[in-house]
Amino acid sequence: MEQLSARAKRLLGLDRAGPLRSNLRRLKGKYRVAMARLRRRRTKATVIGITGSSAKTTTAELLAHILEGSGSVHKLTVSNTFNRLIEKLWRLPRNSAYAVMELGVMAKGDMARMASVLKPDIAIMTLIADEHHSAFGGRAAVAAEKQALVESLAPDGLAILNVDDDLIAAMALNTVAPSVTFGRSERARYRACDIHAAYPQRLSMTIHWPGGALALRTRLIAEHFWLAVAAAAAAALELGVDARIIAERVSTFEPMPTRCGVWQVRGGPTFFVDTAKTPFHSLGLAFDMLGRADAGYKRVVLGQIADYAGKPAKAYGSAYRGARAVCDQIVFVGEHAHRSGAAQEDRDSGRFLEMRSVRQVAEHVRATQRPDEVILVKGSRNLHLERIALAADHDVRCWEPVCGYPRSCLECGKYLIPFEQHREIRAAEKDELRAVRKRASLWRRFTPFPRRPST
């Protein structure tokens, strides 16, 4: 290495560690993408891409649950980025019957990039809202971005579109593939009717299509989940799944714990936990869910709001008024709690509370909880508001304001351990995982292949 000239080292990127590592990462990324494309070409699975501003995760999870009754399913949900898509495709078994992939975007061009690798056989569009406002600036730009998934379909593919959404309905004109529609409209091929949910009554509905009517009973607690159920049922019917299997599988699907999951505390309150994300457009749906619930007392705990246009005070003020209309007490938590514009009368009476920390809210709820109440906990995942529900009957000891873990406390599993100890525990877990992988590698290396029996 010493014999290389300074110019040669500079050209090779060896004069600094940074460029060399960057080039290696780039080469590794290209290799992973190439392998993902190869796996996609070789698989026999029917590949289904699902996107939209909301309802895509529940649609993907429910559709995968339905299809598991008919064959093996390889799925990607929640972590819906390009890198995770590549990783999932890289591990896609050749003999999977279905691949259900949820796709999300953060910036312009993301969907076209993902669709070019996924090359779906079926594309499902749920709804379009004003998400990631700083990146897109409105619904029309979001629709133009999401449309790339439909445009990537081959002529023998299929687009399944929400006809109630004007921007999605128009996508039928921008694909060479045939399309079918679902929705509440009379124009929908798969029409959702008789939709009802009022906790403790769970969501029930009927899907009408040219082949008949399909009555569905679910474990979901809110009417707005009709969209995910209708989209998943329409896709399953188009794939030829028997209607009786669909009804049975839908009835056994459990809500995702942090997406309007029901957490019941023995002898205490019932929590509606919706802490995966909080786009502004979803607040009305959550408040309507609480308003329909049959309970002696109702409370809303609201954290950070995302994806709104205009000034924060306008969004948080609107949220305060919407919550006030359906509940007995409102608690705003986090750095934006002061933006509510709550009336002084509500502050003095205790109907509105403003708190800075999640721990403070949890202690308040635990001290004042009632067995006949329902508490809606809603906020973006960065605050981990699910700890409020966990603390109602667990000794939660991790109260880090912003821990940086991108998933829920349930997936982390360390909420009973102080945050200061998490790093040491994670390091030990990684060491154990490396040891397990090393042992497995050694076993494969030194274990001889079994010989064929002689004939």
TrEMBL record:
<dbReference type="InterPro" id="IPR013221">
    <property type="entry name" value="Mur_ligase_cen"/>
</dbReference>
<dbReference type="InterPro" id="IPR051046">
    <property type="entry name" value="MurCDEF_CellWall_CoF430Synth"/>
</dbReference>
<keyword id="KW-0436">Ligase</keyword>
<dbReference type="Pfam" id="PF08245">
    <property type="entry name" value="Mur_ligase_M"/>
</dbReference>
<dbReference type="InterPro" id="IPR036615">
    <property type="entry name" value="Mur_ligase_C_dom_sf"/>
</dbReference>
<dbReference type="GO" id="GO:0005524">
    <property type="term" value="F:ATP binding"/>
</dbReference>
<keyword id="KW-0067">ATP-binding</keyword>
<protein>
    <recommendedName>
        <fullName>Mur ligase central domain-containing protein</fullName>
    </recommendedName>
</protein>
<dbReference type="GO" id="GO:0016881">
    <property type="term" value="F:acid-amino acid ligase activity"/>
</dbReference>
<feature type="domain" description="Mur ligase central">
    <location>
        <begin position="50"/>
        <end position="236"/>
    </location>
</feature>
<dbReference type="InterPro" id="IPR036565">
    <property type="entry name" value="Mur-like_cat_sf"/>
</dbReference>
<keyword id="KW-0547">Nucleotide-binding</keyword>
